[in-house]
Amino acid sequence: MIATRGVIGRHRRSPQPLAFRAEFPQSSPRIPQNSPTPFLEQEKMAIKIGVALYFIPPKNNLPGYFHWAIVATTASSWNVQPVMVYEIKRSMSGRFVQSFTSERLDGSSAFTGIVDIFTTTAYSTFDQISDRLVSIGAQDRGWRFPGRFGPEAGWDCTAWVLQALQRFRDDRAWNVPDEIFLKVYTSILNRGNEMLYSGASAYIKTVPLNRAQRGY
User: Would you say which domain of life the source belongs to (predicted)?
Assistant: First the structure.
């Protein structure tokens, strides 16, 4: 969890269809009426992946920071709620626990916005995403973000989300070059601050990870 400065009619009746009788050549195979059509490939459903940020204000001489979570939806817009939320958070005992739930993001006063990361067909269900992320575990197993643009050493929600993003990349669900991946931590923080200071909005605030031709 990273500190940030002080920082949210009527319908016309349709005409009756015309009756017709389809004619098939004798050599054409007929498909049973109630059977599936195995030779028609089913279109894969695209899933949008992003990082949701929640600003926790300063308290007891501690600086404010962002709580991070992975979010996913099959809708074309993040304004369609609820969405799937994958995260770790502290339990009453103080230990981190994993939480994978469907919820409305705008129900939290701390919710700041979403950094839109990528859209993929590599996963066909939310359960597949859960299967990839649950094995990360909630507790520190020594993983640290590669390179010199990562967070300070330690384990928290930020490190968990960054490891999730690395798994998406390993699965080739997120096809991104090294120069963007290695700066994803600072890029997400920059986008979070943009949303935090952009004023109130009636919609879910969303920004892309990278600005065109700037990559930060």
Answer: Eukaryota
